[in-house]
Amino acid sequence: MGRYVARRLLQMIPVFIGTTLLIFLMMYALPGDPVRALYGEQSVDPSQIAAIKAEYGLDKPLWQQYVNYLAGLPQGDFGTQIASRRPVAEVISEAFPVTVRLTIIAFVFTVLVGVSLGILSGMRAGKKTDTGVLVLTLALISVPSFVLGFLFQWLFAMQLGWTTPTVQDSMNFSQLFLPAVVLASLSLAYVARLTRTSIAENLRADYMRTAVAKGLPRRRIISMHLMRNSMIPVVTFLGIDIGNLMTGAIVTEGIFNVQGIGNLVYQALSRREGATVVGIVTVMVLIYLFVNLIVDLLYAVLDPRIRYA
Amino acid sequence: MRGGTHARWVVGAVAVALAATACGSESSGGSADAGAVLSASWGDPQNPLEPANTNEVQGGKVLDMIFRGLKRYDPETGAAENMLAESIETSDSQNFTIKIKDGWTFSNGEKVTARSFVDAWNYGASLKNNQRNAYFFGYIEGYDKVHPDSGEQTADKLSGLKVVDELTFTVKLTQKFSTFPDTLGYNAYAPLPRAFFEDHDAWVAKPVGNGPYLVDSYTKGSQISLRRWEEYPGDDKAQNGGVDLKVYTDNNTAYTDLLAGNLDLVDDVPAAQLKNVKKDLGDRYLNTPAGILQTLAFPYYDKAWNKPGMEKVRTGLSRAIDRKQITETIFHKTRTPATDWTSPVLGKDGGFRDGLCGDACEYDPEAAKKLIKEGGGLPGGRVTITFNADTGSHKDWVEAVCNSINNALDNERACTAGPVGTFADFRSRITQRKMSGPFRAGWQMDYPLIQNFLQPLYYTNASSNDGKWSNEKFDDLVDRANRESDPAKAVELFQQAEEVVRDNMAAIPLWYQNGSAGWSERLSGVKLNPFSVPVYHEIKVS
């Protein structure tokens, strides 16, 4: 097990280098000059552009830029934003705590509500509860997140006055609850569907019949036998979903005025701030790799037949 | 317990992951609002808040509150009036002697002297400081040394600036420029305290200036809190206790907050809300032209557009565009149809002349058809209007303009829209002279002077003359206007130059962009200055 983790951690290195290189090349391949774009409609002399490029090493060949970038990473140097002249690490560290909070709330909400709904309808497959959950999840899947965002904003903030329409303080957990729920709604629906199918299927499995025949109490059958075996597809989905929750919140962040990572990537892309985009993606790749490792390890916890050596 | 062992490894991996992604969280400074502080919408400025490095509205809002320059533009008339300047004198429109009023200080107590200005201007002009507004100092002697077009700079200071005594300095320009003093109201010419040069990082984190407000706290990316400076020496003291500028990434969200009572002032009402704005805000809404003109420029380096007779084709195209309908339907009246090549913010005395364009900007399909035919027709039988598709939703209006042209000429294929993916790419194609037909151009004035709407755009080889238009008569009139010491006569000469632009239809004027603002019931006295920035210090909070 220890060796497995060590091997996986080592495997991350080439994956990490490969993905950052890809993003680096993609940003480079975009047409237009980010330094020139800084000046908008205004005119600018070539010497100014040359000076800025020299300052940020943008005049060097691409491979050298990439090597310099990689060399800086271990020291926490993610490069510098061209426009604001701030270190990208600083820019990311400002938006990151906000995104992490939002993601945690959304994730916890997804797991708690999604899994409960899934179990509820899976245990009562074909009954009224099941149909009700089906309708709810289908509605959540088919309604785009911005519709839900505006709807919740109008209903809970403008009509009922339970909360402010936008997030006044991005660090406040209770204010982040509304955007988190909007963000979580789609994943919640998927989690509920996955759990339901898995539970309904496993209910008919042989080992369930054995467990019942052994005379185990119902609570133990459900929590230890049924749940543990039904959670594998759900855990897989949740692992992938963490990344989506973190970066895919551009629309929700805009509606509720949350200054998070999604918005940062969007702005950086439109300004062609390569260093910022690569920096954020690098962090996301790292998170993604770790989450996937944890998911794989969780398989072994959930299903004793899976062994890592 | 095998499961237990596995679980321990999972916990271990989680711990590694958390350590790797560990991030410090800062608490944002939530100071208690004193009664008369208002909150307003803001966008995070791209660049540091250095005066010579800020050329967009968001950073301009803050600079306008924390700085006062030699001159200041009247929010109503746009006229430049003395602020810190006691007098600006010249005998030859080229050498200026500037005297500063006594008694001004920065908010950290440092006295504002001639050196505060000269050091600031030298910093702004110097190539190595990468200041975005460096070109503002381009008329001052020695600029080519501190900011050469190519290669290294050979001097650190502008030779045209000399400190005479504590409150006096002289400026020598490279050419006659009679209206130069009127340019000095722009933020780029603001004085800077020593702290700016001695501890730059600290200054950028919390700027110190000489205006009616102080920076109380600045959380990059979310909010800047400005408070009234009680010892401010000027007579335009702030009428409120302070302003909290909050960052909004979407102006619809800011508008929602205004309606919900979480925000007092929104200075960019989204187009989607304009239908409701009367119902929502009543007369707490303002929509006036700003110093921004949208035009269609032409590539004069392309022979097809530069041969004799083409001015008729260009005028014909101008007359085929139904400006009124497009500004009403596409822009919901957030643009005003252009009738000249300047902007209404200049005012009559400043050089704006309503209707200078005359017939050439009037929609008339018959005349358009006739003019284009007389001029030899469109090059290749059709035009493509090039624009960038990533910002500012230009696609809508370009297609509307093309529709208007096609309808006027009874030719479905006369005009097509040619999108370029990104603004960066669009600009690089323009500078590489790759345009083959009309392209989107916009001009946001640097300072409210008619000179600024003409010289940088149409003078031979001028900095923003993207179409490379060149006309001897125009150049001559501009030169004469710059030599003219009587401002009224100078304006008149500039208007004659503008008529040359009209007669050749060097660029098709489309519309003036409007600035807008909506505010809560607590506020009164909201105005926009010529740069579409709210005049915060005059706002009263009840």
UniProtKB/TrEMBL annotation, chain A:
It is a multi-pass membrane protein. Signal peptide: none annotated. It is found in: Cell membrane. InterPro entries: BPD_transp_1_N, MetI-like, MetI-like_sf. Keywords: Cell membrane, Membrane, Transmembrane, Transmembrane helix, Transport. Residues 96-299 form the ABC transmembrane type-1 domain. The chain crosses the membrane at residues 12-30, 100-120, 132-156, 176-194, 234-256, 276-302. It holds the Pfam family BPD_transp_1_N. It comes from the Bacteria. PANTHER family: DIPEPTIDE TRANSPORT SYSTEM PERMEASE PROTEIN DPPB-RELATED (PTHR43163), DIPEPTIDE-TRANSPORT INTEGRAL MEMBRANE PROTEIN ABC TRANSPORTER DPPB-RELATED (PTHR43163:SF7). Belongs to the binding-protein-dependent transport system permease family. This is ABC transporter permease.
From TrEMBL, chain B:
It comes from the Bacteria. Residues 1-22 form the signal peptide. InterPro entries: Peptide/Ni-bd (IPR030678), SBP_5 (IPR039424), SBP_5_dom (IPR000914). Gene3D superfamilies: Dipeptide-binding Protein, Domain 1 (3.90.76.10), Dipeptide-binding Protein, Domain 3 (3.10.105.10), Periplasmic binding protein-like II (3.40.190.10). Residues 82-464 form the Solute-binding protein family domain. CDD domains: PBP2_NikA_DppA_OppA_like. Keywords: Signal. PANTHER family: ABC TRANSPORTER SUBSTRATE-BINDING PROTEIN (PTHR30290:SF83), PERIPLASMIC BINDING COMPONENT OF ABC TRANSPORTER (PTHR30290). This is ABC transporter substrate-binding protein. The lineage of its organism: Bacteria, Bacillati, Actinomycetota, Actinomycetes, Kitasatosporales.
